[in-house]
Fold this sequence. Notes:
- By secondary structure, this protein is α+β, with helices and mostly antiparallel strands.
- It has helices at 25-37, 59-65; strands spanning 7-11, 16-20, 43-47, 56-57.
- The protein has one domain (3-65).
- It starts with 6 loop residues before the first strand and ends with a helix.
Amino acid sequence: MRMMDIKARACFNCHEYMAINAGSTQSQAAMGKFDKDHSRHMVQTVAFGEIGHGYRSKTRQYLEAV
């Protein structure tokens, strides 16, 4: 899988993101928690390469929480 094929869920308010593995039920559950935690923010699914500098990965945090 190429880096540009990887998707991430990004919060533009908090400058946080989590990588998405579309085939994983754990990843889908973690994305639901990410969306809930950022429900009043601007959140969007983007290509991993589109994430700008200054964004913090929260992938591990959300995967471990489910």
